[in-house]
């Protein structure tokens, strides 16, 4: 659980006659993480594809282009197909259906292009309506140059100056002046120069006939009929998508699997008559792999386990041992958080279990509200049905477990939608005189009660339900946050020490990782001693802190290690965010309740102080305000309790043990998880 | 001991100090985050899958404001150097 699954290095060697059944079996078993042969041995060549590799990949390309036309994306399967069914329908699907889809799609593209051209033409024609010329007057001259466009100022006089022979039409529309100028072709250059002084910009006139208005009407008629043709074609594509979506994805899966199998030998080493496959397999699965392969190949294959020492040599030479992280189903979602950071190396720890323990507690401590917890559970249950991909499901599970914790902490904190909220109304609160007494004694931790149980606490101090905004509670939570930080960081440090020992780096373990832990634990003990007034604890703490700093200096980094010492303290202070972010959201909730119950509702009811006297409109406005502010607070309240504990894990904890030696390679066995195909 | 300043003034100064600690730390965190934020928005525009990592990176400088807040909390709740002079 905490460590990746133990792996063994195996070599599979056999006669080339049985390569096909061996590949088939390996693909079915999904056990062997193949190490690609790099061609470094002179007596072995790289393998060549077997069977119909080329045909399969051609079919796959054909299929993928069709699925792209239909805009089919990967999704959760609705029905599954047997391989025989795929085989019988594939030919029809790829050729007849595929050709139909391609033709339809191409026709739609052509229509769209034609509509675009016609729209552009109509757009260019519209301004010409202000000029009194039919469209065929604009083109077809041998001895005349034509200029059609907009001009910023009147051009007649200047054009007449350079070309006495001319014909000028002008008209204005939409704050622009449109001109059409006809001059002898030999004057074209001069006229063009003159026009540019007047800010002339040319319009290209489409070569059409008749009046401008009738030409536009014709174009629009054309566009309409094209659109009319396009709509049923699009519907046809949509219908085909509905009909063939799952079948196409299943065929894609089948073809991908076949390509994978036929191309597998590219990763093997081969001689004229034999093949060799290197790979890693989970140690407890080796005997199964061996017996299954031997029976599939009728004994013509040899599956050898390489002993640990030899495997160690291969790792030294740069081969990566794949990491297979394996956790119980409750912890599985938290692998997502681990993966987001990095896959651990084979010899490192898999921190998913730790995240499972700490993350929800931290989330709960920050959010800590029954109302918000229940709301987020409900929202997530809805999302869980909607987002069915693995990643989303894992994310939703993470937040669901965390929401349960926030309900638990909500009970400790006595909060249902914030302090002053529903808790007091449901569970009641302390009588006035007891409240005064607690405040007077400096032991005020809030005014809520657990119904008839009253307040609960220990050592004579009734701490729960704890109002997080009370001074005493803030101080207590500061201590608790740092305490959680010390535990969290220490667990990280212990893992760090064990990881370094796994790699055989004793010096790093005892003089780099251990001092951090000593420093942080005894720093906390010193603080506790100061708070409790126990000078003995302070002295012991101070001595150990000095020792740990000395150890650090003796470590691999030498005096440079001193530079890290401030960060040991700042690591711990960073855990104050557990308190701080919680306070921010409690503060907002408190403000909302205060505003609604103690400001808006009394004000709108004409100064009534008792909730029984509030008028109906006052209650409605109050509830609207409550709803709005709590909704905003809820959105913020889901995001930051998620991101901040994540940061505490990644920055404060993982850095103590993780990836000191570089990221790992995830175990990905040769094979395929069937989704659309029946096994 | 002679009373140097009245309790109200000293408590007020403490509160101002606490406010400055959190406020200035907040500005610092904001300055730190602006560059990261701009970069993250740029990356997310290119590759939406980076959003989670980007949000996480944006949180890194927020430790600064936590330090400021810690100082404020200590000033307001746990710092009693003037107890001798403040209490009459």
Structure write-up:
- The complex is a heterodimer of chains A (679) and B (88).
- Chain A is α+β, with helices and mostly antiparallel strands and 679 residues long.
- Helices cover 58% and strands 10% of the residues of chain A.
- Chain A has 20 helices and 14 strands.
- Chain A has helices at 19-29, 53-69, 83-125, 156-162, 188-197, 212-263, 286-296, 308-316, 335-341, 352-367, 370-386, 390-413, 422-427, 432-440, 471-502, 506-532, 535-554, 565-573, 577-604, 616-653, and strands spanning 7-15, 33-35, 45-46, 144-151, 167-173, 176-184, 201-202, 269-270, 274-282, 301-305, 322-323, 456-458, 461-464, 665-666.
- In chain A, the strands form 4 sheets. In chain A, strands 1, 2, 3, 8, 9 and 10 form a 6-stranded antiparallel β-sheet that branches. In chain A, strands 5-6-4-7 form a 4-stranded antiparallel β-sheet, covered by helices on one side.
- The model of chain A has no long low-confidence stretch (mean pLDDT 86).
- With 88 residues, chain B is mainly α.
- Chain B has one domain: F1F0 ATP synthase subunit C (F1FO ATP Synthase), CATH 1.20.20.
- In chain B, helix 1 packs antiparallel against helix 2.
- Chain B is rod-shaped and about 60 Å long.
- The relative contact order of chain B is 0.20.
- Residues 84-88 of chain B have low confidence and may be disordered.
- Chain A binds chain B through residues 340, 471, 474-475, 478, 570, 573-574, 576-577, 580, 643-644, 646-647, 650-651, and chain B through 52-53, 55-56, 59-60, 62-63, 66-67, 69-70, 73, 77-78.
